[in-house]
Amino acid sequence: MDLKNKILQTPTGKKLLSEYQLNLLTKNNIETLLDFHDAENQKLNKLLAIKLESVLEIKKELDMLPWQSETFVETVNELDFGTGIEELDKFLDSIAQPFRRGRVWEVCGQTGVGKTQLMYTLALNFVWKHKLQVLFIDTKQDFSTKRIQDMLLERKVDQETSEKAMADIHVVEVLTSEELIEVLKAFDQQMTDDVQAALKTKVVVVDSLAACFVDHRGREMRRTRDSLLTEVACRVRKLAVRGVAFVIGNISFSQDSGTF
């Protein structure tokens, strides 16, 4: 299905965009879903002569459509990764939601409830079981190698196995949402270029999403925050279609904790 038909499946696109406006996309080399997502929001705002909020809404609605394979997309195997946590895997199997390729999880909770420990465990269990790699995106600048080493010591593994597991968890520090987007873009490009390290990376862990949006809190930053969140979602979705699973940590707030 071409881009125009996809956009017309969205409520906002169907309501606001004419055939003439949709043809402008093609004339400006915006011909696929990913071309549309990759296009600057301000460019689409001017090109289509619609509000910036409407551009963001169309992108969000496109993300809600059933996934359609495009020429660059690899077929996602139904290979179950498993979490390595027996009771959790049993529960996930019971609701037909096992941890597998292309799965995107958001792990939410208040500070101190164990989100990071769960993400460490999932990352270590994955490299341990599958001999593949994990991209661990650390937005809090507090990744603890010692915690991983302690977990390995508890498993009583030899030094060579321990060093291999540590090496397979590739940690990248990011400070801002813009840096997070750039890391995801670079990873996707490496997959396209057949970089072996990228092709062997099948899980991305983000700890945590909220930390890199700390400068965009409050109602006055809502438009910028929504735009960046949409861009992150598009990048995650594109990689998920290619078979990469995501575990994204986020913070939940009580009603009286203020506006994020």
How would you characterize the overall build of this protein?
About 4% of the residues have low confidence. The longest helix has 20 residues. The protein is of the alpha/beta class and 260 residues long. Helix 13 links the parallel strand 4 and strand 5. The radius of gyration is 20 Å and the shape is elongated. Strands 1-5-4-2-3 form a 5-stranded parallel beta sheet, with helices on both faces. The chain is built from 13 helices and 5 strands. The chain has 2 domains: 62 residues; 166 residues, P-loop containing nucleotide triphosphate hydrolases (Rossmann fold). It comes from Drosophila persimilis (Fruit fly). InterPro entries: HRR_RAD51_Paralog, P-loop_NTPase, Rad51_C, RecA_ATP-bd. Pfam families: Rad51.
What descriptors fit this protein?
alpha/beta; five-stranded parallel beta sheet; 5 strands; Rossmann fold; elongated; 260 residues
By helix and strand content, what is the structural category? alpha/beta
Oligomer: single chain
Report helical residue fraction.
40-55%
Radius of gyration: 20 Å
Q: Determine the strand fraction and express it as a percent band.
A: 5-15%
End-to-end Cα distance, whole Å, is 38 Å
> CATH topology of the largest domain, what is it called?
Rossmann fold
CATH class of the largest domain: Alpha Beta
Low-confidence stretches: 68-78
- N to C succession of SSEs: HHHHHHHEHEHHEHHEHE
Please tell me the overall pLDDT: 87
Record the strand order, biggest sheet.
1-5-4-2-3
Coarse shape: elongated
CATH architecture of the largest domain: 3-Layer(aba) Sandwich
Largest sheet: 5 strands, parallel
What's the total count of β strands? 5
Question: Total number of helical segments?
Answer: 13
CATH superfamily of the largest domain: P-loop containing nucleotide triphosphate hydrolases
Write down the domain tally: 2
Domain RecA family profile: 77-252
Keywords: Nucleus
GO biological process, one term: telomere maintenance
Protein name: GL17012
